């Protein structure tokens, strides 16, 4: 914090020193009778600074949003793969894993999404559900189906970890400080430029405030991908739930298989 404070102060002192010393050294013909040029220079710098900060922050926020959305897609894909891999497990294991996967996905869609919105972290109860599921699969007898199911859960765990980082992330504090500083300077620009209060200047000042406010609001909505006005949708998990139903329709039925086998035996 000390360095962040000292560097701007040192730059301000350096600029003032160069200005005063340069004023004494420059030729008389270079001098201007008014300070309009300096005011124009400062106003241009303020506008450039504000535009650069807004653009930089928006790019960071949008990248965080896209990464968070991609992580939800990766997790939902892993859940579907895990559910499909459990089809090859014995009946008891298949029912246990698939019911737990459905319960976990439902908890993510309903309870955990609200926790990420308010607390910016994942739900402990949903984490317990996933940990229990993973422990149950790890305790199953070793075979190809159990190994494939466990591999799918490992992918879910990785995507869940990424989602936890996304939920707790946000725009760095120093960028918010720079944005607030640039916003204040930009809103003061009509005063610094010496504009007279007229109908036109009032209308332009109101328009300036609307543009600045809209930019700040957009950044606020994009700050955290799982909260605010522009949240990552839950469509990936909802699609996964529909895939669970489709996969469940093809669950092996040993009784039906036996009946078919008996029916296929040729009569003598």
Produce the secondary structure layout:
Blueprint: H1 2-25, H2 36-85, H3 91-119, H4 124-138, H5 144-168, H6 173-192, H7 199-223, H8 235-248, H9 254-263
Give your account of this protein's structure:
This protein has helices at 2-25, 36-85, 91-119, 124-138, 144-168, 173-192, 199-223, 235-248, 254-263. It is mainly α and 268 residues long. It has 9 helices and no strands.
Q: Biggest sheet, open or closed, and with what strands and sense?
A: none
- Quaternary organisation of the protein chains: single chain
The portion of residues forming beta strands comes to under 5%
Number of helical elements: 9
Number of strands: 0
Helix content: over 70%
Name the poorly predicted regions: 254-268
Shape, per Cα inertia axes = elongated
Rg, rounded, reads: 31 Å
Helix/strand-derived category reads mainly alpha
* pLDDT averaged residue by residue: 82
Order of helices and strands: HHHHHHHHH
End-to-end C-alpha gap: 93 Å
Protein traits:
268 residues, mainly alpha, 9 helices, disordered C terminus
């Amino acid at each position: 914090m000390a360095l962040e404070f000292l560097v701007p102060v040192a730059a301000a002192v350096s600029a003032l020193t160069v200005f005063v010393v340069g004023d004494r050294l420059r030729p008389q013909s270079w001098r201007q009778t008014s300070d309009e040029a300096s005011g124009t220079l400062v106003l241009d710098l303020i506008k450039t600074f504000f535009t650069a900060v807004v653009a930089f922050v928006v790019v960071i926020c949008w990248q965080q949003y896209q990464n968070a959305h991609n992580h939800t897609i990766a997790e939902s894909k892993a859940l579907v793969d895990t559910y499909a891999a459990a089809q090859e497990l014995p009946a008891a294991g298949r029912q246990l894993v698939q019911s737990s996967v459905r319960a976990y996905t439902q908890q993510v869609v309903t309870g955990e999404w609200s926790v990420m919105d308010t607390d910016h972290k994942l739900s402990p109860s949903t984490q317990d559900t996933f940990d229990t599921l993973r422990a149950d699969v790890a305790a199953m007898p070793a075979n190809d189906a159990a190994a494939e199911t466990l591999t799918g859960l490992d992918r879910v765990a990785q995507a869940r970890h990424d989602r936890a980082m996304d939920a707790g992330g946000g725009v760095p504090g120093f960028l918010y400080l720079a944005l607030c500083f640039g916003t204040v300077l930009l809103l003061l620009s009509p005063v610094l430029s010496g504009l007279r209060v007229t109908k036109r200047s009032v209308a332009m000042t109101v328009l300036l405030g609307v543009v600045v406010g809209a930019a700040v609001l957009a950044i606020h909505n994009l700050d955290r991908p799982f909260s605010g006005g522009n949240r990552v949708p839950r469509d990936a998990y909802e699609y996964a739930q529909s895939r669970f139903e489709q996969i469940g329709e093809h669950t092996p039925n040993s009784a039906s298989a036996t009946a078919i086998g008996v029916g296929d035996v040729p009569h003598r």
